[in-house]
Amino acid sequence: MTFVCLEFAVLLGVSLILVRALPRFRTAVLLLASYVFYAYWNPWYALLIAFSTAIDYGAARWIAAHDRPRDRRLALWISVAANLGMLGYFKYTNFGLHIIHDLLGEAASPLPSALDLILPVGISFYTFQSMAYTIDVYRGRIAPERNPAVFALFVSFFPQLVAGPIERADHLLPQLRVPAPSDSGHFEEGLRLLLWGLVKKLVVADRLVLAAMPVFETAPTRGAADLLYAALALFTMLYFDFSAYTDMARGTAVLFGVRLSENFRLPLAATSIAAFWRGWHITLSTWVRDYVFLPLGGTNPRNLPRQALVTLLTMGLVGLWHGANWTYVAWGLLHGVFMVIYLLWFMGIRRRFRRASRIARHPAGAFTGWALTMALHAVGMALFFSPDLSQAFHILRSFVSPTAWMAPPREPLGAGFAILIVLWLIHARMGTRFPLERIGDQSVVWRALFYAGLLLALALFAVPRSHTFVYFQF
């Protein structure tokens, strides 16, 4: 079940009616809806999420009830081991078997080359969210949740279950216990976010998939110009696809009186690689910062080699989080290299030479930083969307090959790049000059025109068959 199917509309409608008709049973209704939503793909998935819920609920209560450090650490490690073990088994077992067979060859023949495993949808999201709760209880940041039903809803809340945002317990749990008052303004806001997400998904993201993926799939026969266009289109598609899910998740949650965390903050307008990661998949970036980067000592300004090493390790783990494939690991490490280069520039040249700082703040310098940031992410798409390293390296070689740039394009590049520029400009203007949140403050006539425009765009340009959200596979 996805946000763009009839079954979800029915589930959402029934849940809203029951919550309003039976406010005392709000938690039970939402918990049932969440498990129905998740079990729709595969009923066995519900057992996995129930297992993770039970482990972390019990571990957190045990940590709070005991003072001995040994007992508290034991409960914490049981939670971490259970969550990472479940994630590792379903997501990385076959990847590990593949590595063993590549390293040992015939000596690894007693081991199977792969197991018949189905990756549970969203397992990377809810295991990180549930595990962070236990860690925060251990650190004393929050008190454990006593109501098992409320905690189960925290882990499985269906608007953000399969692709985030990865919520923190101190932000989401209080809203699940006592929802915000709901009125017509909140209802309109929720529907506005849902409609806006539908347009981003069906009109923009899915059409960019149709335009760009065939180019990547036939990469060996394409020139560099075609591949650059496809890489930029896929990067743009990835943003609109993922942010569309987030908008629809936030809109659905608002209908139930819950506000989810912001997950994007103008990433396509970023003028540096660091600014991009501060605005892209914010809840994952902050999760990795708080639970990996900072504990490893990644912010020690007096030890640049350690800071660089921790940055590379952290970004490599971010890549691995996205998928069990060397292409994702390489993508993460590549961004780690970009981050280290930026770190060295920021810590060295920019701090020592005031002229460099002035250049970075100048409109021309900002534009150069933006263009370079977008180009670097386009290069990363060669790894992110390629099925293997061989194809990825072919695309990367094409970007630096004079011969590949001389190959005549087979795509309407002029129109394609114009569309991408228009999308980037709309993205920047909507975010800085006229954010979506302010639409509700406009007059009735203006709001009616806005909604009519979105409905017209859906009627005229929506793809007849939607593609699965990209981040569902993670």
Please describe what this structure looks like:
- With 474 residues, the protein is an all-alpha fold.
- The chain folds into two domains: 6-179, no CATH class; 186-473, no CATH class.
- Helices cover 72% and strands 0% of the residues.
- The protein is built from 19 helices and no strands.
- It has helices spanning 6-21, 26-39, 43-65, 69-104, 123-139, 148-156, 169-177, 184-217, 224-255, 273-279, 282-293, 304-322, 326-352, 354-361, 363-384, 389-399, 402-406, 413-432, 444-461.
- The radius of gyration is 23 Å and the shape is globular.
- It starts with 5 loop residues before the first helix and ends in a 13-residue tail after the last helix.
- The relative contact order is 0.10.
- The mean pLDDT is 86.
Keywords:
mainly alpha; 19 helices; 0% strand; globular
Radius of gyration over C-alpha positions, nearest whole angstrom: 23 Å
Give a quick account of the main beta sheet: strands, pairing sense, barrel closure: none
How many domains make up the 3D coordinates?
2
Helical residue percent band? over 70%
Structural class category: mainly alpha
Strand portion: under 5%
Distance between the termini: 16 Å
| Number of strand elements | 0
Mean pLDDT: 86
The outline comes out as: globular
The string of secondary-structure elements, in order, is HHHHHHHHHHHHHHHHHHH
Spans of 5+ residues with little confidence (pLDDT < 50)? none
Q: Helical segment tally?
A: 19
